[in-house]
Amino acid sequence: MQKIKLMTDSTSDIDPELEQSLGIQILCFPVTVDGVAYRERQDFTNTEFYEMMAHAADFPTTAQLTAFEFQEAYQQALEEGYTDLIYVSISSTGSATHSNALMARDAFYAQVPGAEKLRIHVVDSKNYTGVYGYPVMQAAMKLKKGATVDELLNYLTEWFQSAEVLFTPLTLKYAKRSGRISAAAAFAGELLGLKPLIRITDGVSKVETKIRGDKNIVPTMSKYIQQRMIPKTPYSLIAGCDDTFAEELKKELVKKLGYPPEHLFHIGATVSCNAGPDVVGIVIRSEPRTVAE
Q1: What are the start-end ranges of the E strands in the chain?
Q2: Which of 25, 184, 267, 270 holds its CA 20 to 30 A away from the CA of 15?
Q3: Where are the domains of the chain?
Q4: pTM for the whole structure
């Protein structure tokens, strides 16, 4: 019989309560604030981290998860008798974490006696936050209903062929400094009161349009969402330290689409360090794309 473990990392922004109830293992990214090292989710809540950012003397930074940490996780899964481990990672284009998971898998099979009893499947989300937090949650629910490894992997593959995020950072200083969101780094127009609507698809960020004035954020996002989203598919919202725009967007989309979002993801430390603590965004499914070979 298959005994399957689902694992992801903290940039998935899955609520801690759901992490526990759904039985998902989450590896937590290291974060440094003013020279002090922390672990996301373990050492502070999201709200506490937003406060830390507000009072930090310098920009907080994040680091990758190491191959050693993955080997420890693989060893634990083997000892617990799992036959399969599915790890869904942060985008390989934004962190070496994905490649470290693969490197650790190779070393694990080469060095650990009996390691072949555990099949390790590393899935690249090619994105951030709820773009992979949502399907991991769904996969966990499918697993509780008896889904097989192949069924879970097929679901995740299909999801990532069409999933994307559209978001607006309400301040660009973090995204520009981090360099992780290349579209933000190239954006100009802040002095004119412009904010970018950024789309991340398959690890690539692009400024879809420039929004003038806060009052136009929700209407503009709503328009683009309706243009890109596959009708009647589930969607989730993203917010940071302030839910105001997310709540406005929810009302607008319920009116336009006729049904509410599946979930509201609050961005954690890793996403906040790279996009800023105050964002509004949405995870949708658009037309499927060709899988890269």
Answers
A1: 4-9, 25-27, 30-33, 36-39, 61-62, 84-89, 119-124, 163-169, 194-201, 204-212, 236-239, 263-266, 279-285
A2: 184
A3: 4-161, 162-285
A4: 0.94
